[in-house]
Amino acid sequence: MSSSSQPPDQPGGGPRLDVGEIEEAEQALKQELRTTEAALGDQKTQSSSRGIATALLAAPGTAWMLFYLVAPVIFILLVSFWTQSTSGFEEKWTLDNYERLFSDGTYWRTLRQSIFNSLIVVGATFVMGLPIAYFLGMKVENLRNQIALFIVALAPFWTSALIRVVAWRDPLMGRSGAVNEILLKIGIINEPLDILSFSNFSVVLAMIQLYVLFMIAPLFFMIAQVDRSSLEAARDLGANWFQSFREVVIPQIMPGVVIGSIFIFVLSMGEFATVRVVGGNTVASVGTIIRLQNDQVQFPTAAASAVVLVLVMMVGVAAMLRFANLREDL
User: Whole-prediction pTM value?
Assistant: First the structure.
């Protein structure tokens, strides 16, 4: 009988694996592992380089915001807890400023009036700005004409806000202004209306004309991006103009409404120059109270008033942000 050089099969019947093949497979796996690690290392290096570049680009803006925005707010917060003195304040911690503020009925009445005025200004600018923005974004098809008409709407805002406030008070809305003169000549009134000057009504009107552009601009840019095909689909489904506007346009422009409302609410809440010029000594706002406290060298009390005002603004802004998710919608 002849003998075979091949080793016999294992009792299980399967062939035996060659040791060389196993070693080759291990070497291939090791080589693939090294290649993967090198690729991951290169990716981490690239990500790290991009992160450093992004940080360097963001550093100037971050430093600017920290110095001009965050640092003053922190300093005002600290001063609000310091003790009042003849020289302004002493660095002694106290809650007297807030206790004095919470017991001041005049401050809280003025704060409520400021909130009410700001909400009126937000609503009025929306009602006035929406038709203008809708016309520019929907009815004007040519982009060049859109930009030209928007610049026309922007033209009054090339002048100083204070100049526009003074022009609004005396030549237009004063007791001897153009509005009273026109109403007298056409016989609607028999004597000039005092409500048009040095009144809360005149202050609200002045703020509306000052801030209406802050509503027109975001509404215009959002309306210009409205999906026209969705409007056509709504009309094909039988919706009239109002239903299409309510169900299609309003949801798409809501971020613009929120952005404009936040701008106007914050600006009008902190307003004091317009209130002082247009309202004279008959109208007050939280801004005029803070300025008066500052002029009287009551820095801790003024700081406490400013802190409360900022908190009220933050609550108002948070409430407005609930109407739109700006991160997802923009």
Answer: 0.77
